[in-house]
C-alpha cells in the first residue's frame, strides 16, 4: 500500500502558468483539510533502561513524499519518536518520490557523517547502491519496510508482513464462518493495485489461511487503493453475488468507498475485514454499525520503532528484552487483528487516511 | 470540407446539417451512422451478460447500479462532447472534479452545510473551466497543453488542500450522500441528475443557437468567424461548460463515496475522451452527438460490470476496452467514407 496514487504530482513544478494559478488560488484557501489529529504514535514500549539518555547520536531519515495517509504517518511517527529522546539529533531530508533525488539526499546524509540512517526507499532495488555505500562508510542503515536486495546494504531491516496480513484476515474470517457453521461460504476479496508484489503476497496469505478451514476465495477484484475505485469495484461485486458471507478489503482508505457502496446497496448479510488500520476503520469497528467488523494492521508505527532501533545501534546497545548484546538483523512486524474488543487499545495508533 | 470561400450546398458547416436532421427525426438519428454499431454492441454485451450470469445481470438492481456507475463520468462526458465538437479537448476533467470535491469537503466549506458545499463544487469546477477557456481562447494556448497544465496543477492543488487525505463528509451534511442513497421509484437520485444533465445537454446542443455555433466553431472556425460568431468567446464558454459538468460530477462522486479526495477521477479524461470518440464524435471537431457519447460510455460501464460479474480481472477489461476503441473508430471511418461520395 505504500507505493501509490498521485503519480502525477511531480510534474507540477515544471509548469509555470499552472503553478502560478495554483498559488493564486491557494491564497484564499479555506483553512484546508480536517485537523490532523494523527496522534504521534504511542511509544510506550518495553524499556529496560534503554530509554535513559545515552551518547548523543545523529540519525538521518529519508522517505518518499507522502501521497497516501500511510506514508504521511511514517514521516510523522519518525519525527515524533526522535523528539522524545534528548540524545537524538534528528536529520530528516526533504521527502521525494524521485529516485535520483532520494539518492542525492542520502548522499548528503553520508557526507554529513550521521551516526545512523533510517531509509524507506522509493524502490529497494534502485537505492541499494547508495545504502551499500553508506554501510561501507561505516554508517549503520536501518532499512524500513521496502527491502534492499543486498544484505550488505543494511544493518537491520524492519517492516510489515503483507503475507501475514492476508493470513490474519483469513483466520478472522475462517473462524467467524466456522462458528456460524457456514458451508461453502461466498468469500469476496477486494485487492489494491494488483501488479504490486505486496498485493500478491497479501492475497496468497489470505488464500493459504482460508485453506486451513477448507474455504476458498469465491471472487477477487482489484482496485487502486483509492476510495473511488473501491466504490466502483464493490458496486459491481455486490451485484455479482446476491449473498456474500465474508469480504476482505486490502486497504482501509479504499474501504471508505467500499463501505459506501455496501450501504448504498443496503447489504448487511456479511462480515467485512479491512486492511492497514486507519483511524476511520477503527472508529467504524468501534461504533459497530457497519459490516466492517475487523481490520488487520500494517502499521506505520514501524517508523517509530525504526528510529528507536537506529538509536540503539548507534549507541551500541541491544534490545533490552532480548539476551543478545546487539539489535537483531531483521524484524518483521506481526499483522495484528483489530476487533471491537481491542479497538480502544489501537485507536491512538490509527492513522488518518 | 474546410474551404470557407466555397459555400456548401447544405448551407453551413457539416454539423448543422446533421443537427437539423436530428431535430427532424431523432429516432432516425439514433439509428443513423455509428449509432447502429453502438446499439448492436450494447445489445451484444447485454446478451453476453444474460447468458453468462442470468441470475445476476438482468436484475433491476444490477441495471440501476450500472447507471449509478455511469452517472459520474457520464456528466463529465456531456461536457467533454461539447468541447470536442467545438474542436478542442479537455484533459483536465478528472483533476478538476477531484479539486472540486476536495474544495467542497474542506472543514471550512463543510461548516456552511450541504447546499454551500454543492454550490462550492459547481463554482470551483466552472471557475477552473473558465480559466482553461481564457487561456485557450484569449491566451492562444493549444487546448492540449493548457488543459494538461490544468490537469497537473488542479491535482496538485487538490493534494495540497486536502493534505493528501481523504476528506469524509460529516454526518450533518449527509444530504449530499442522500443523492446516492435516496431512491425515487427505485432509482437513486443521482441517476436522475445524470439524466437531467444529458437531457439539458442534448437540448443545448440540438435546439439552441449555442449548439449550432458549437458545431460551426468546431467544423470551421474561420467560416464561423466570417458568419459573425465570436469564436473566442464561444470557445471560452465551452470550457466553462465542461468545468461546470466536472463540478456537478464532483457532487455525484461525493455522494457515491461519501468523501472528497485528490485521488478521485484519476484517468477520467481518458475514459471520457474514449466514450466521446466511440460515440462517433470527430476528434477534429464539427461533428458528434451527446447520445453517441452516452452510448459509448454505457459500453464501457457494461464491460466493467460484465467482467466483474464473471470474476475476470482488470487486465482483461483493459484489453477489451482498447480493442473496442480501435474497432469503433475503424467502423466510424468506414461509415464516413460510405457517405462521402
Q: Compute the separation of the termini of chain A in Å.
A: 12 Å
Provide the β-strand percentage band of chain B: under 5%
Q: Estimate nothing, just give the exact number of structural domains of chain B.
A: 1
CATH third-tier fold name of chain B: ABC transporter involved in vitamin B12 uptake, BtuC
Given as residue ranges, the uncertain stretches of chain B (5+ residues, pLDDT < 50) are: 1-24
Which parts of chain A are unreliable, with pLDDT below 50 for 5 consecutive residues or more? 1-47
Helix proportion of chain B:
over 70%
Shape descriptor of chain B: globular
Proportion of residues in extended strands of chain A: 15-25%
Q: Quaternary arrangement of the chains shown?
A: heterodimer
> How many helices of chain B in DSSP terms?
16
The main β sheet of chain B shows up as: 2 strands, antiparallel
Outline the biggest β-sheet of chain A: 6 strands, parallel
Radius of gyration of chain B: 20 Å
How many angstroms separate the termini of chain B? 13 Å
Structural class of chain B: mainly alpha
CATH class wording of chain B: Mainly Alpha
Summarize the topology.
The complex is a heterodimer of chains A (353) and B (341).
Chain A: H1 16-26, E1 57-62, H2 69-83, E2 88-92, H3 99-111, E3 116-119, H4 124-136, E4 141-144, E5 156-159, H5 162-179, E6 187-191, H6 197-211, E7 219-222, H7 227-240, E8 246-249, H8 252-265, E9 271-276, H9 279-287, E10 292-297, H10 302-314, E11 330-332, E12 337-339, H11 343-346
Parallel strand pairs in A: 1-2, 1-3, 3-4, 4-5, 5-11, 6-7, 6-8, 8-9, 9-10
Antiparallel strand pairs in A: 10-12
Chain B: H1 14-24, H2 26-31, H3 34-52, H4 60-85, H5 93-104, H6 107-110, H7 114-137, H8 143-162, E1 167-168, H9 178-181, E2 183-184, E3 187-188, H10 189-207, H11 209-219, H12 221-226, H13 231-257, E4 259-260, H14 268-278, H15 290-309, H16 314-339
Antiparallel strand pairs in B: 1-4, 2-3
Helix pairs in contact in B: 1-11, 3-15, 4-10, 4-11, 4-13, 4-14, 4-15, 5-7, 5-8, 5-13, 7-8, 7-13, 10-11, 11-13, 14-15, 14-16, 15-16
Amino acid at each position: 500500500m505504500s507505493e501509490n496514487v498521485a503519480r502525477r504530482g511531480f510534474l507540477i513544478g515544471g509548469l509555470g502558468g499552472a503553478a502560478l494559478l495554483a498559488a493564486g488560488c491557494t491564497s484564499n484557501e479555506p483553512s484546508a483539510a480536517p485537523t490532523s489529529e494523527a496522534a504521534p504514535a504511542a511509544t510506550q514500549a518495553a524499556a529496560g533502561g534503554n530509554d535513559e539518555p545515552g551518547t548523543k547520536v545523529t540519525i538521518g531519515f529519508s522517505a518518499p513524499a507522502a501521497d497516501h495517509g500511510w506514508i504521511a504517518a511514517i514521516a510523522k511517527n519518525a519525527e515524533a519518536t526522535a523528539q522524545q529522546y534528548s540524545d537524538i539529533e534528528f536529520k530528516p531530508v526533504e521527502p521525494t518520490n524521485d529516485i535520483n533525488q532520494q539518492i542525492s539526499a542520502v548522499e548528503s546524509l553520508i557526507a554529513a557523517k550521521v551516526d545512523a540512517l533510517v531509509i524507506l526507499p522509493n524502490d529497494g532495488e534502485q537505492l541499494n547502491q547508495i545504502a551499500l555505500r553508506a554501510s561501507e562508510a561505516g554508517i549503520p542503515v536501518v532499512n524500513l519496510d521496502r527491502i534492499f536486495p543486498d544484505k550488505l546494504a543494511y544493518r537491520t531491516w524492519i517492516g510489515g508482513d503483507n503475507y501475514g496480513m492476508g493470513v490474519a484476515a483469513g483466520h478472522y474470517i475462517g473462524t467467524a464462518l466456522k462458528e456460524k457453521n457456514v458451508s461453502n461460504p461466498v468469500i469476496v476479496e477486494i485487492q489494491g493495485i494488483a501488479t504490486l508484489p505486496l498485493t500478491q503476497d497479501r492475497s496468497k496469505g489470505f488464500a493459504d489461511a482460508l485453506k486451513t478451514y477448507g474455504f476458498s476465495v469465491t471472487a477477487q477484484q482489484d482496485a487502486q487503493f483509492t476510495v473511488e475505485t473501491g466504490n466502483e469495484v464493490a458496486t459491481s461485486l455486490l451485484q455479482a453475488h446476491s449473498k456474500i458471507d465474508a469480504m476482505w478489503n486490502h486497504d482501509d482508505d479504499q474501504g471508505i468507498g467500499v463501505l459506501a457502496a455496501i450501504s448504498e446497496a443496503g447489504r448487511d448479510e456479511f462480515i467485512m475485514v479491512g486492511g492497514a488500520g486507519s483511524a476511520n476503520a477503527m472508529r467504524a469497528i468501534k461504533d459497530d454499525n457497519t459490516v466492517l467488523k475487523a481490520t488487520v494492521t500494517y502499521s506505520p508505527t514501524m517508523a517509530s520503532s525504526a528510529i528507536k532501533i537506529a538509536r540503539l545501534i548507534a549507541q551500541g546497545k541491544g534490545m533490552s528484552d532480548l539476551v543478545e548484546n546487539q539489535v537483531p538483523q531483521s524484524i518483521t512486524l506481526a499483522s495484528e487483528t483489530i476487533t471491537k474488543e481491542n479497538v480502544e487499545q489501537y485507536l491512538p495508533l490509527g492513522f488518518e487516511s | 470540407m474546410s474551404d470557407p470561400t466555397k459555400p456548401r450546398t447544405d448551407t453551413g458547416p457539416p454539423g448543422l446539417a446533421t443537427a437539423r436532421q436530428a431535430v427532424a427525426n431523432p429516432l432516425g438519428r439514433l439509428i443513423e451512422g455509428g449509432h447502429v454499431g453502438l446499439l448492436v454492441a450494447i445489445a451484444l454485451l447485454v446478451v453476453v451478460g444474460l447468458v453468462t450470469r442470468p441470475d445476476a445481470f438482468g436484475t433491476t438492481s444490477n441495471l440501476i447500479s450500472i447507471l449509478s456507475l455511469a452517472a459520474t463520468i457520464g456528466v463529465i462526458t456531456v461536457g467533454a462532447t461539447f468541447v470536442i465538437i467545438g474542436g478542442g479537448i479537455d484533459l483536465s476533467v478528472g483533476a478538476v472534479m477531484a479539486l472540486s470535491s476536495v474544495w467542497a469537503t474542506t472543514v471550512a466549506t463543510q461548516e456552511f452545510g450541504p447546499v454551500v458545499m454543492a454550490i462550492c463544487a459547481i463554482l470551483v469546477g466552472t471557475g477552473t473551466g473558465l480559466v482553461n477557456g481564457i487561456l485557450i481562447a484569449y491566451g492562444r494556448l493549444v487546448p492540449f497543453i493548457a488543459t494538461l497544465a490544468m490537469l497537473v496543477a488542479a491535482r496538485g492543488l487538490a493534494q495540497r488542500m486536502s493534505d493528501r487525505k481523504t476528506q469524509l463528509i460529516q454526518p450533518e451534511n449527509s444530504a449530499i450522500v442522500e443523492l446516492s442513497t435516496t431512491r425515487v421509484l427505485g432509482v437513486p437520485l443521482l441517476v436522475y441528475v445524470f439524466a437531467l444533465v444529458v437531457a439539458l445537454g442534448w437540448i443545448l446542443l440540438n435546439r439552441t443557437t449555442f449548439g449550432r455555433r458549437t458545431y460551426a466553431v468546431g467544423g470551421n472556425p474561420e467560416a464561423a468567424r466570417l458568419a459573425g460568431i465570436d469564436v473566442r468567446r464561444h470557445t471560452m464558454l465551452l470550457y466553462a461548460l465542461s468545468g461546470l459538468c466536472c463540478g456537478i460530477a464532483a457532487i455525484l462522486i461525493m455522494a457515491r463515496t461519501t468523501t472528497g479526495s485528490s485521488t478521485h477521477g484519476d484517468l477520467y479524461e481518458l475514459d471520457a475522451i474514449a466514450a466521446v470518440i466511440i460515440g462517433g464524435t470527430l476528434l477534429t471537431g464539427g461533428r458528434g452527438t451527446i447520445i453517441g457519447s452516452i452510448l459509448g460510455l454505457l459500453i464501457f460501464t457494461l464491460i466493467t460490470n460484465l467482467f466483474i460479474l464473471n470474476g475476470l480481472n482488470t487486465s482483461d477489461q483493459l484489453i477489451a476496452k482498447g480493442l473496442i476503441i480501435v474497432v469503433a473508430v475503424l467502423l466510424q471511418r468506414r461509415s464516413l467514407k460510405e457517405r462521402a461520395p
